[in-house]
Design brief:
Elements (H helix, E strand, L loop, with lengths): L9 E3 L15 H20 L4 E4 L13 H22 L2 E4 L13 H11 L4 E6 H7 L4 H8 L5 E6 L15 H9 L5 E4 L8 H19 L1
Parallel strand pairs: 1-2, 2-3, 3-4, 4-5, 5-6
Length: 221
């Protein structure tokens, strides 16, 4: 376990490695290996002092075409239910991440994720808002989604990134309305930055995002 000075906010993209995992596979052995891996990720997050796990991993949750889709969806829900209980038992929150098509074909909106969270009904399971995915897939703006869903208590994490794949303020999506909505509803969770294109490079992208968001927050005080 890490000491207090090494604590992290959480873990993301939980199934990017190793290969061959899936929560929707028709093969029970694959699902069992995947469940074992994810339970380990939950324990790791807790040991490192993290608070949230963000389950994106679209390739490992894809639904097949045709009549097998319903069974695959149920496999995923059964897996989330087990993970939610385990997450709660070790004091972390497991978040289902809505992702935009064509990257994902399952859980592509906050509303769809909320429906699953409510169906399972475990306190260790929540959803989150990724501004990039929301900007690509949702009919409503990220701030409107926050206004709708933050009062429900079902959003436990927020990622600020532009639909162009860059950091906040490096595209067309307005960030200040998102921060305003979070402050208006007294959001106390983590807000992360998750660009996929580092412009001009990784360290400079991180520094720019920090400075930009601090400036936005100071402007709301």
């Amino acid at each position: 376990a890490a000491d207090a000075g090494m604590a992290i906010s959480g873990l993301h993209w939980l199934l990017v490695k190793p290969p061959g995992l899936s929560i929707t596979s028709e093969d029970p052995a694959v699902r069992q290996r995947t469940l074992h891996w994810l339970r380990g990720m939950i324990d790791l997050c807790a040991d490192l002092g993290g608070q949230v796990l963000v389950h994106g991993s679209p390739a490992q949750r894809r639904l097949p075409d045709g009549p097998d889709a319903a069974a695959a969806r149920q496999h995923a829900i059964d897996t989330f239910a087990v993970l939610a209980e385990h997450a709660h038992s070790v004091g972390v929150t497991y978040c289902i991440e809505p992702l935009a098509p064509p990257t994902a074909n399952f859980i592509t909106s906050v509303e769809e994720a909320v429906a699953i969270v409510r169906e399972i009904g475990e306190p260790g399971l929540r959803t989150m808002l990724d501004c990039c995915a929301a900007g690509r897939a949702e009919a409503e703006s990220p701030e409107t989604l926050l206004e709708r869903w933050l009062p429900s208590g079902l959003i436990a994490h927020v990622q600020l990134n532009d639909p162009n794949g860059r950091g906040p303020g490096q595209g067309e999506q307005a960030v200040k309305p998102v921060l305003d909505a979070l402050q208006r509803h007294g959001y106390r969770g983590w807000v992360a930055v998750e660009p996929f294109e580092y412009v001009p490079d990784g360290p400079a992208c991180a520094a720019r995002a920090i400075g930009y968001l601090r400036g936005m927050l100071e402007g709301t005080e």
